[in-house]
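Methods — Computational structure assignment.
A single polypeptide chain was analysed. Its primary sequence is given first, followed by the predicted tertiary structure written as C-alpha cells.
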Amino acid sequence: MCDGPLRGLLVVAIEQAVAAPLCTVRLADAGARVIKIEREGGETARHYDATVKGTSAYFAWLNRGKESAVLDLKAKEDLDLLYAMLERADVLVQNLVPGALTRMGLSPEVIVERFPRLIAVSINGYGQDTPYAPMRAYDMLVQAESGLCAVTGTPETPSKVGVSAADIATGMNAHAAVLESLIERGLTGRGRQIEIAMFDGMADWMAVPLLHYEHAGRETGRFGLSHASIYPYRPFACADGTVIVATQTNAEWTRLCKVVAERPGLAAHPDFASNALRVSNRLALDRELEPVFARLTTAEAIARLEAAGIAWGRYSEVRDLGAHPALRRVEVALADGACVTMPRPAGRDAAFRPGPVPGLGASTEALRSEFRGAVSDAAAPTGLREGQNHDR
C-alpha cells in the first residue's frame, strides 16, 4: 500500500481479468488499501501466461499494491468474513456475473440498508436495463458489438484494437466514478450504487462516427494508419523509412504546402481548400504529396516538418517502446521478491513506489484474524449464500 491521497481508504475487490483490477490498481496506486478476494486457485488473469518471471503479464500489470485473500463465498464462514470487511469498507468493486452479488444477499437494497456509506461498483458487459443484460461480455466481443471494429483496420479487414480497449475503458470509467462518489459522500455522508457497463464505454468512444452517420448519413471508413475525418493525417513513405504527418488546421495545411512540399499554390487548390474537401479528395491529394516525401529521407522530411511547425511521429514496433526516449518506468516487486519494471502510470511522478504484486492468498489468514471480532455482528443473512460465479 502506497502513501497517497487515498490512504486510509478500504477497498474490497471481488474481481478478475482486466476491467475491475484496472480500477482498483489505480486506487491502490493512490494509497488505498485494496483487499482482493480470489477463488481457490486464483483469479483468471493469474493463469493467462507466466511471462514475467513466472507471473502473468496481465496480473503483474494490474495487481500491484493489493492484498490477496482466497475465500469460498459459498461457505458461511467466508461469506460472513466478506460482510465483516464491508462493514469497514469504503468501496466495493466487483465484476461477477450479473446477479451473483444479489445471490450472496448483497442486493442493492441490502447494501443501502446495511452499508449506507459504501460505494458499490458493479462492472457488467451491458446495461442491466437493456435486453443484452444477461450476455457474456469479453473485450473483443464488446469491441465488435459497439462498432469499434467497423472503424478499425484496413478497407479490406476490420480489426479489433490490439490491446484490451473495452476492458481498459471500463476500468478507467469505474475509477473516475469511484472518485466522484467519494467527493459526493464527503458532502452527503451517503454511498452510491454504480453500474459501469463495458458497452457504454465503447459506445461513448464511438460518438463521433455515430453522429456523422445519424446527422450526415456518412459511414466512417477504415483507413489503417490514416485518419478517417482529418487530412492529410497519415504515414508517408520516405526514401529510407516512414514518417507520420498530422495536419489538422488550414493554417497547418498552408505551411505544409509552402515549407514541406515547396508548392505554396497547392494550398489554394479548389479540391483541397478545406479539411472536408481534403478528406473527400484524399486519393487525389495523396498523388500530389506522396512523390514529395518519396524524394526525401526521413531526416529531411522531419526537418521540413519541424520548420513548418507540423506535428509528426514515427511508427514504432513493440520492440521499440522499451527504448523509447519518452518512456518512463516504475519498478514493481513480484510475490517472490523479484523486481521488474513497467510503464509508469500517467500522473505519477518519479517518487512513485507501488506495492508488490501479491502471492495467491498471501493475506488470507491475517485478514481472518483482523476481522474475526467483527464477523458475528456482520454475518450474512441465512438462506442467501448461493455460489459465486467469476465468469466475465
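Note: Residues 384-392 have pLDDT under 50 and may be disordered.
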